[in-house]
């Protein structure tokens, strides 16, 4: 059973001694592919962890952004990489539980193409609009969409991303139609609504807390049952009257299938130490992340497949 608790990451690792002398891995830099553009929650999570991992393992851990197709491009690149521990993947719900149900399917299999390492946590999706725009509540958002079908647009981190599907899930419950505009990442989606090119965005809350706090964007709702500490004034989707639109984006670390149990174990051990740090828990809380427990690799695989089953009908509906 996945347990809820705040998680986090890594000042302990900063002080940890280098351990690469214990074995052959790692003897050179490790590449961590993030299948999204810089600035999103995956990027925030992994770049924070990578500095501590470098010190713990005595080699650089380099985050490489490879966006495209809602995260499927970078995810496929890792699935095709050698399982030697030098190519890892930080990814989320979109490529693993959403894209797998799309037509055509991605060039990987969520159950068989990866060695799952650890779960970082989950975060709800934010619905936001321009800070000084006319829409101030989800009721007004729905009314605007009902008045002019397809005139109200929303940006996300790409086709098949959880933001995309969360927007579609809400639209189905609200009985309206929205025009989806995919972007390569969170920053592009946010800049589009600030510039007045799109009406709204649906994306992981942690990528947009700065925009909300700076009033450049206005949060209408978060897709959780409880409010998020980093954006306490943003109502939940339940409070807004749409309990069927509750959803979460989760984040994990993986490698190509065949990655050795020794490497998986060493990464899990040091990331578990990172997650125990109070400073890390505070940092994750600030971006709206909550823990999904410390599941084993096998439990992560089962969790991913359950999520894929849950999202499949929404994906099919979104594709028409």
TrEMBL record:
Residues 1-21 form the signal peptide. Pfam families: TctC. Keywords: Signal. The keyword Signal applies. InterPro entries: BUG, Bug_dom1. Belongs to the UPF0065 (bug) family. This is Tripartite tricarboxylate transporter substrate binding protein. The lineage of its organism: Bacteria, Pseudomonadati, Pseudomonadota, Alphaproteobacteria, Acetobacterales.
């Amino acid at each position: 059973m996945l347990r809820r608790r705040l998680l986090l990451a890594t000042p302990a690792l900063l002080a940890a001694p280098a351990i690469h002398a214990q074995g052959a891995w790692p003897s050179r830099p490790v590449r961590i592919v993030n299948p999204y553009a810089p600035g999103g929650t995956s990027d925030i999570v992994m770049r924070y962890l990578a500095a501590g991992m470098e010190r713990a393992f005595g080699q650089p851990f380099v985050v490489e952004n490879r966006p495209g197709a809602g995260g499927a491009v970078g995810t496929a690149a890792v699935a095709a990489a050698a399982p030697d521990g030098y190519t890892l993947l930080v990814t989320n719900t979109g490529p693993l539980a959403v894209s797998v149900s799309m037509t055509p399917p991605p060039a990987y299999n969520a159950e068989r193409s990866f060695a799952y390492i650890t779960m970082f946590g989950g975060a709800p999706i934010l619905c936001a609009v321009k800070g000084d725009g006319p829409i101030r509540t989800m009721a007004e958002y729905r009314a605007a969409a009902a008045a002019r079908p397809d005139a109200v647009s929303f940006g996300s981190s790409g086709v098949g991303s959880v933001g995309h599907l969360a927007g579609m899930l809400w639209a189905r419950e609200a009985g309206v139609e929205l025009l989806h505009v995919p972007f390569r990442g969170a920053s592009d989606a946010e800049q589009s609504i600030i510039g007045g090119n799109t009406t709204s965005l649906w994306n992981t809350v942690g990528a947009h807390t700065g925009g909300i706090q700076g009033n450049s964007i206005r949060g209408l709702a978060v897709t959780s049952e409880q409010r998020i500490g980093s954006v306490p004034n943003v109502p939940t989707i339940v409070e807004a009257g749409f309990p069927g639109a509750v959803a979460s984006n989760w984040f994990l670390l993986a490698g190509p299938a065949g990655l050795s149990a020794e490497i998986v174990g060493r990464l899990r051990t040091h990331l578990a130490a990172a997650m125990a740090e109070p400073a890390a828990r505070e940092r994750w809380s600030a971006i709206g992340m909550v823990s999904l427990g410390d599941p084993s690799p096998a439990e992560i695989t089962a969790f991913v497949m359950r999520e894929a089953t849950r999202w499949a009908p929404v994906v099919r509906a979104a594709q028409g």
